[in-house]
Amino acid sequence: MKIVVCVKQVAVLGDEVEFTDDARDVDPDFLDASLNEWDSYATEEALRIRENAGSDGDEIVVVSVGDGDVEPAMRRCLAMGADRATRIDHSGSRDPITIARLLAPVVNAESPDLVFCGVQSSDAVQAATGTALAELLDLARVAVVTRIELDTGARRATVHRELEGGLVDVTEVDTPALLTIQTGINQPRYATLRAIKQAEQEPIQVVAAGEEGEPAYRVRRMFAPPKGEGAELLDGSAADIARRIAGIVQERLK
Amino acid sequence: MTPTRSTFAGLETWEIVFWYGLIALSTAVFAWGVVRLVLKYRRGRGPLRFDRPWTRLRRAATVVFTHSWIKRRDPLAGAGHFLIFYGFVVLFLGTVILAFQDDVAKPILGWHFFRNGFYEAYSLFLDVFGVALVVGLAIMAYKRGIQKPFRLSYRRPDRTESETERRAYVIGDWTFLGILFFLALTGFLLEAFRIAESNPSFEVWSPLGWAAGHALRGIGVSGEAASTAHFVQWWVHGVVALGFVASIPFTKAVHMLTSPASVATREERAAQELVPIPAGAKPDEVGFGTILDFPARYLLQFDACTKCGKCHAACPATNSGYPLSPRDLILDLREVAEGALGLRRELGIPPLHDPAASVLGDPIRPETLWSCMQCMACVEICPVGIEHVPIINGMRRRLVEQGEMDSSLQQTLESIYETGNSFGETGRKRARWTRALDFEVKDIRKEPAEILWFVGDYASFDPRNQLVTQTLARVLQHAGVDFGILYDAEHNAGCDVRRVGEEGLFNHLREQNVATISRCTFDRILTWDPHSFHTLRNEYPTFGVDWEVVHHSQLLLELIEAGRLAPSKTLDYRVTYHDPCTLGRYNGVYDEPRRVLAAIGTELVEMPRSRDNSFCCGAGGGRIWMSELKREDAPRPSEQRIDEAVALGNVDHFVVCCPKDVTMYEDAIKTSGHQGDIELRELTELVWESLDLPALVAAATHEREEEQA
Q1: Which of A180, B201, B211, B289 qualifies as a cystine partner to A130, CB 3.0-4.6 A?
Q2: What is the pLDDT of residue B426?
Q3: What is the pLDDT of residues A9-31, one digit of tens each?
Q4: Contacts A34 to B, Cβ<8 Å
Q5: Whole-number average pLDDT of chain A
Q6: What is the model's pLDDT at position B501?
């Protein structure tokens, strides 16, 4: 069995933000980087499937798109226990359709039984890459997965999807398939620094990016939204403020 | 009649031969017992280190002969042990002298010294020490049977009553006392029957035996009757004594051998300065998982434990309902070691524990290990030198390696890796506290300064602690101290990360800090965080740096004594002072903060637990990053501490000098219901107040009120 996990190194905002001179992006000086939270759950789920239902020769392959700076996120997955990592070298547009186009041939070449993506990334929050990739690979796709019961013999999985309002949709899907993994499906393991340091010694395969095509969108401008109207600052003692709040709430409930 | 006595008076030759046979048997069993202990310890990881042998032997001899460690915090028990020890040693030496006389001096050298003055002195000496032994045993029986202090109770905080099986220990304790008492009693009876038989006048030198002998004669036991009783008593006393000697390596009495050996082989700073994990260690070589992973000296320490429970009484976890007792942890490990590598193995019986099985989970539960605050209260007071702190830390290392930890701890460690601080804040915010100052703080990366101030996470990011940090900056500025900080290049020093057991992350942080600090020009490093102080001062040098590191309590004292800070307003507060574990027990800095408090005029009242007996706030060992493990409805360690301070009566301020203490005790004053009874002050805040610079004090106080509101 082979599972490909597509991961992203996301940008993490501090509480101070400035934009680049062309106002089309956040100034990288104000960004930290991290492995996308959803992708750490996806990686953990792949590791658990291997541990619980796996056999010798199972492989977990991490794939990411980006320049050399995204490798720490990939190494994090290797430190957690993934077997190897492939980086698709690319530094242009980061829209989800472009990324899916770049991922498709590389993922396809692996002929995986399962492809995992995070439901979304914490920085762009498009939740589109996984679905686009499934379409390009002509794979069955289940989104927002919170539980996987895999029957390797029958090449079938019973998966739970999280719906609005606490509803759960139980679906059967034949493998190969692409699943987008929701947070909370498991508790991602701690990658010790020892493991991270060892992962630093492991090679990451770098492949050239294929045809990226037209970007699905372009950023024209980034700006801080204007301050909204209607904020009211309450002054006075705690008791006064509490009374005023109670009054406002009652007013609005009418 | 010459004052002497014959050892084998009235015995047939075959009886004497039989007796020597028993001695040989007893000695053989004893020797075999000792050999199998040594073989057991040798199965531990690595050799038993014994470098600087004279220092080690001198330490062991001092501890054993002066009872300096045994008598601490319980002088009565110390006295009891002292009497038993010297009683036993002298009576044993008496027997050795007798054996030398009978088996070497007389038959081989023809030298008969066991008579006249020597005999009389010997008699008196042994009688007195025999009495000492009995009195000592009585004290111990009183402690165990009547006084029953908390430390001697076998109730475990980590197990329910039904899960606790300690009957064997109770039987062992009383049998040990009982046998020694029986030996002393039969010894005196033996003497009494001998004296009662013919009443030689010189035996007045055995005053107790003399009195008892005369009492026997008074009730008509003399002559033949006394002789027969003496004969029976001789064999009873002799056989039990030989049985006792043979049993030493197998019972509680083994501590007569293992405890001094433990004191001699312990590593002086092992609790304070943890050992690095060897480079290239495989996951199953990281820390301790199976009993075979423990170094030989730890296997020895498990057997050295006398169950005195001083660790149990001192441990903040044990005393706050956490599922950990350092005593029971050591005893559990002893049972595993003995069950896996001990007597059964020698006798070819299948072991009780698989030596290759992990001890984590059963019997050592993860929550037990995570309850530890690594505060060193146990190591400090252990009279036999057991190193609980690194033992627990080694098992934590294995848990971390296996990824088994509390999720909030995991998040914190991940934040520390990603951001370099435990608050998960971006590094740019680290120096934001400087914005409230009306002067610029030097960036020591860009310009040299006398003092490199390593601020630390809590002192940098926590709002209440920022007030102290700002006050310290103002004090330093006022005193004209040339200082600078590392701004966003500072990373968590790694003290608590290391104590959690995440050695890899500690190394990562250390490498980053060493690289940054090594590029700066400075004379000394200052910090007001005792955790950073400890690690920078003691744990970084192992990796090849050599910095002079001072705690702000030391620098403040220095500045006051040099006249650079002139306290002009006498603070007539009644205060008490809490010793931070990493400053006090870890580094022996007890006096400087107290001298500062004296210099600014405060009246210091000590809490019952102070200095080396200080009671951890509950934050240590990474506990501040973990979720609650407390089972029982006991007050938290910090709340107990506030109770302790308030009980002193009319104390204005609870003085601390550690950022985590500020956080823990500000909280505890509220949660223990003592708001209004006592107020927390960081040492610097009092120093600033004593400088009597009104405007800024008002500002600082105002900010604090805002913070509290």
Answers
A1: A180
A2: 87
A3: 999 887 788 999 999 889 988 88
A4: 418
A5: 92
A6: 97
Q: Which residues of B touch A192 (CB under 8 A)?
A: 400-401, 403, 502, 504-505
First-residue to last-residue Cα distance in chain A? 59
Contact B209/B130 with Cβ under 8 angstroms? no
Per the CB < 8 A criterion, the answer to whether B218 and B198 are in contact is no
What are phi and psi for residue B181, nearest 5 degrees? Answer: -65, -45
Distance between CA atoms of B599 and B567, rounded to whole angstroms?
8
Q: Which phi and psi (to 5°) does residue B607 adopt?
A: -75, 160
Nearest to A189 among B403, B417, B428 (CB): B403
| Positions in chain B short of pLDDT 70 | 1, 632, 694-709
d(CA B82, CA B66): 8
3-state secondary structure at position B157: coil
As its CATH architecture, domain B276-337+349-401 has Orthogonal Bundle (1.10)
H helices, E strands: number in chain B:
27, 9
CA distance A157 to chain B (A): 28
Gap between the Cα atoms of A48 and A44, Å rounded: 6
Q: Is B407 on the interface with A (CB under 8 A)?
A: yes
* Torsion angle (degrees, nearest 10) of CA B512, B518, B519, B525: 100
- The pLDDT tens digits of the residues spanning A52-107 come to 877 778 899 999 999 999 999 999 999 999 999 999 999 988 899 999 999 999 99
Element (H or E) spanning B576, and its range?
Answer: strand B574-577
Give Rg (Cα) of chain B: 31
Nearest 10 degrees: Cα torsion A122, A124, A127, A128:
-150
Bridge partners (DSSP) of residue B675 are: B678
Sequence-ordered list of residues with C-beta below 8 angstroms from that of B55, at least 6 positions apart, any chain? none
Domains delineated in chain A: 2-208 (3.40.50.620)
Largest Cα span, chain B: 101
Give the distance from residue B401's alpha carbon to the nearest chain A alpha carbon, in angstroms: 6
Q: Which residues contact B441 (CB under 8 A, 6 or more apart)?
A: B431, B434, B473, B483, B484, B485
Give SS3 for B618: coil
Query: Per the omega criterion (within 30 degrees of 0), is the bond before A176 cis?
Result: yes
What distance in Å separates the CA atoms of residue B615 and residue B618, rounded to the nearest whole number?
A: 9
- Tokens (6 digits) for B429: 């915010």
Q: At what angle do helices B116-142 and B167-198 cross, to 10 degrees?
A: 150
How far is B657 from B652, CA to CA, in rounded Å? 16
3-class SS letters over B317-351: CHHHCCCCCHHHHHHHHHHHHHHHHCHHHHHCCCC
Q: What is the pLDDT of residues B522-541, one digit of tens each?
A: 999 999 999 999 999 999 99
What percentage of chain A has pLDDT greater than the value 70?
100
Domain ranges of chain B: 50-263, 276-337+349-401, 408-708
| φ, ψ dihedrals at A242, nearest 5° | -60, -45
DSSP output for A3-28: EEEE--EEEEE-S---B-TTSSSB-G
Which residue among A187, A190, A195 places its CB closest to the CB of B413? A190
Positive or negative torsion for Cα B654, B658, B661, B665: positive
Q: What CA–CA distance (Å, rounded) separates B657 from B465?
A: 11
Tokens of A167: 């509803």
The per-type count for chain A, helices as H runs and strands as E runs, is: 6, 11
Q: Report how far residue A171's alpha carbon sits from residue A144's, in angstroms, rounded to the nearest whole number.
A: 12
- Only one residue has tokens 């700066």, namely B520
Q: Say what the pLDDT of residue B702 is.
A: 53
Virtual CA dihedral for B244, B246, B248, B250, nearest 10 degrees?
-120
